Predict the structure of Novel STAND NTPase 1 domain-containing protein.
Amino acid sequence: MIASATPAVPIVFKGREELVKQGVNILCQQGLRFLAILGAGGMGKTSLALHIIYSGLVQKKFGERCYFIPCELFEDTESLVQGLVHVMELTMQENQSKQKVLFNHLQSAHGDLLIVFDNFETPWNHGNSRVGVKNLLEKIANYGKVSLIVTMRGPDGPGDIAWERLGDQSGIPTLLPVPAKEAFKAFAGNKLQISNDSESQIDSLLYQLEYVPLAIRLSAQHVKRVPLKTLISMWKKDKTSMLKEGTDPGRLTSVSFSIDLSLQIFKIEGKTLNLLSAISFLPDGIPFWVKYLPQMVPGEALNFNVSTLLESSLIYDQKN
């Protein structure tokens, strides 16, 4: 399951070169050990992590001592430890504690190790596992030869670890228009029919998709089967429900699934969900929201609801 859930390094990867450079610099040149890649679902956090760990400098420093943990498979401390023991190929003796075997290995490591906890929001927000997962992560971080990368939904890294963050205060930003267009064309391939109108049509579509990497990839997949003009009609009619591939939706194959996953993981329901629904109708968000949101929705427990939505990265705070 771990092997099949571990993705390959993405072939199409546009507009993230500077973020990769920053991540490599943090792990290799600055001598810092903890890198957090944060933000909403569909922003390409995993792709960014993969390009960082397979860069020349990171491979030179860590070599085969680089371990990738797809955390969507693990819901608590025990299963995370079992995953680490498996990917590190540690030998278990009879009646031995898995945690002891893991910590002994980290203690006796001869070279630097890098552990990538991908999609860490799953164990971090599952049931009552937060305390145990936090303790495990911080114990691992205490070993001087261990470096960590964590990717997760939300604006903050987990635990009381001095994470170096990529991106801005909201996490990994969306793509800029030019690399977004390059990515769309690369995903669409030679099936994309270029005409006098197609360039402006692509620009308009990408603007409406808000340059979100997952949305760009999934929309471009349709161009292999339908003309660009038809794709734009599909978007106008069906919106995010057409941003999917295959029959079994997943976090990497459906924008709607990715959004629903955030709602589920962060338990967004009731009045919090109603607030998100209201905000989603406002194309420019709520200017000076601290002042005006209480006037728009009087009498609600806004601080808690807003905090929950910010934690999920389904909304973000930028320039007031």
Remarks:
- The two ends are 43 Å apart (CA to CA).
- The CA atoms of residues 198 and 244 lie 22 Å apart.
- Strands lie at 34-39, 66-70, 113-118, 146-153, 164-165.
- The mean pLDDT is 92.
